Amino acid sequence: MLRNFPFCIMSVNITRIVIQALQEERLSRECNRRQQVIGVLNDLYAAAFLRLSRLWEQQHGTVANAGFFLKELELSTKKKPRQLLKSLEAYLSRGLRPPSPPSSQIQFTSICDPGVELEGDS
């Protein structure tokens, strides 16, 4: 289980890394092979998150060393994007999808939900 994982910050950084790889034409071969761009970007994003979560868990990551993990991930994405994509394919082919909690346990409240008082409402 990932503890103290800064999901939002990592998500923004992985998005930056994936877009940068596209801009630097490091994904051109894969995009041409598949004849699509968005699918490749989505898969690379998922592959990068998978790699990051494995590193975080194996090395007992903390927020203090998150920068190290991002640098390693950026290097992997630049040098070996196809290898990252293959690791995602292997992970999915083994059926190792993360378990999803039962929906009855998840309760989100939105400001649009009835009964939620907004600041200043009386």
TrEMBL record:
ELMO domain: residues covered: 1-81
PROSITE patterns given in the database record: ELMO
Organism superkingdom: Eukaryota
Alphabetized InterPro entries for the sequence: ELMO_dom, ELMO_domain-containing
Endpoints of the signal sequence: none
Name of the molecule in the record: ELMO domain-containing protein
